[in-house]
Amino acid sequence: MNFYDKYQAEFREYDAMTRDFIDDDKIWDQLHKAANSSKTAVRKVLAKAERKVRLDPEEMAILIQNQDQGTIEEMYALANKVKREVYGDRIVFFAPLYISNKCANNCRYCGFRRENKLVERRTLTLEEIADEVKTMISEGQKRTVLVYGESPETGIDFICDSVRQVYRTKWGNGEIRRANINCAPLSRAELAKLKEVGIGTFQVFQETYHHQTYREMHPAGTIKSHYRWRLYAQDRALDAGLDDVAIGALFGLYDWRFELMGLLYHTIHLEEKYNGVGPHTISFPRIEPAIGTPFSVRPKYAVSDAEFKKIVAIMRLAVPYAGLILTAREKPEVRREVLPLGVTQIDAGTRIGVGGYRQAAGNMLPAKEQFQLGDTRSLDQVVYETCLMGNFPSFCTACYRVGRTGEDFMAVAKSSFVHNFCMPNAILTLKEYLLDFASEETRKAGDRAIQQYVDQMAEGKRKDFLRQALARLEQGERDIRV
Ligand code: SAM
Ligand code: SF4
User: Fold this and answer.
1) Which ligand is nearest to the CA of 116?
2) How far, in Å, is the centroid of ligand 1 from the Cα of 199?
3) What residues does the Radical SAM core domain cover (predicted)?
4) Measured in angstroms, how far is the CA atom of residue 395 from the centroid of ligand 2?
5) How confident is the model at residue 477, as a pLDDT?
6) Tens digits of residue pLDDT in 270-316
7) With contact defined as beta carbons under 8 Å apart, do 301 and 253 qualify?
8) Do residues 287 and 298 touch, judged by C-beta distance below 8 A?
9) 202 Cβ below 6 A of ligand 1
């Protein structure tokens, strides 16, 4: 069978639909209506957001269209408050692991696209995956997202083998405790196999929610050109029993205002269909120039740093219980600026070349990468800075490992659980990092932050537990969690 025919039978389900949940005209209509909203209207939306209730599209449109600097500043302050109340002062750390850059698609913006002759194509063998994972663990990583192009070589059985290999690989005291997946949309039968191997989150970015732009970016004749196959990728994952799904848009392909609305409509669709379970995380990468790829950001739709700040804050307020991921595509100065506006996860120490971790550790020439990274600092440097900024780097994977995912996780996030469990787990996993992997300077900064946190806790069982657990870690015990 021709590779492009792989899902032809399954496409019928979507081809038969007369419409999907993204109505381009309606979105523009809502955005136009919200233009010139009064400060009172903006403050009314902010008051709802303060109650940590998911916003409706009309309300999000008001925040998007607001040009008044005073209320924009109020929005930033509120986004920071909501983030701290829901998630605490912690930032979850992860690093992507690029498994294969072979791809049969031809997305105009991506360095992995089929027609790009400047990229050396590689799929890691299982042995090479183990080598990459060992290097990542030796740097202190505990969570990863595995990234794959879409090619016959990286079908579902290979993906499952690679996940097993990641979990099986150990180095010293360490291991990868959660492997998320970023790959092409899959069928329900394939997704059920992913459930069996125990992946964390299943992540697919729609790239652009705008139908016409989607067609222009993804040439016909490729699997990726099927908008609805992609749009309903998370539905199929939930149907197949996976608990955590993630969405995202690639900013710079079309108007950022429209894409934000698309992300909200996607969230609402999932919440309504799956018993209140929305996306576990939302990503909002900006396009970066890619090697051998003349198409980059469309100047008309380039997202400025000021607009990027708005995107993060509005997303935080509109969907208070979804994690927000900020990747190392962004430069350190941008990351510093937007982190307080509601980001919950960042990657650090990232290498996006296939085989890139070992190459970097061995000072070999870097592999040609998918796009240019903005933040090339080491994990240690970013942990250090995060501690100084008053946040606790967290390597926690407890919820996933005890089965608090999907619906259960949403219930957890909506309660004080985060402060009673996630914060202590953040501190304990940070302490593990400091003991096993950190530089002297980072260890001191991290220990100082931990001490301050413990000192300000009220006396009682929680404080006693944390003190004792920290002492047990110092004595060599590992993987202590609440
Ligand atoms: N092949 C799978 C797919 O397309 O969903 C997963 C891997 S793909 C490398 C992961 C994501 O990288 C894409 O969904 C896209 O949003 C992002 N990406 C592609 N080209 C990019 C670029 N030039 N700059 C930033 N992100 C890019
Ligand atoms: Fe392939 Fe994904 Fe890149 Fe498109 S974005 S060319 S599908 S790797």
Assistant:
1) 2
2) 20
3) 89-341
4) 28
5) 93
6) 999 999 999 999 999 999 988 888 877 677 999 999 999 999 999 99
7) yes
8) no
9) no
Closest atom of ligand 2 to 106 CA is 6
Separation of alpha carbons 280 and 410, rounded Å: 8
pLDDT computed for residue 31 by the predictor: 98
User: Residue range 380-388: average pLDDT?
Assistant: 97
DSSP letters spanning 34-58: HTT--HHHHHHHHHHHHTT-PPPHH
Cβ proximity of 4 and 104 under 8 Å:
yes
Task: Indicate the domain borders of the chain.
Answer: 8-22+87-412, 24-80, 419-474
Nearest-ligand number for the alpha carbon of 159: 1
Summarised one tens digit per residue, pLDDT across range 398-456 is 876 777 666 666 666 665 677 788 899 999 999 999 999 999 999 999 999 999 999 99
Average pLDDT, the chain: 93
Instruction: Please give the ipTM for the structure prediction.
Output: 0.99
Q: Which CATH number fits domain 8-22+87-412: 3.40.50.300, 2.80.10.50, 3.20.20.70, 3.40.50.720?
A: 3.20.20.70
Is the CB of residue 109 below 6 angstroms from any atom belonging to ligand 1? yes
Find all residues with CB under 8 Å of 444, minimum gap 6, and list them. none
Which amino acid residue places its CA nearest to atom 20 of ligand 1? 110
Give pLDDT tens digits for 53-64.
999 999 999 999
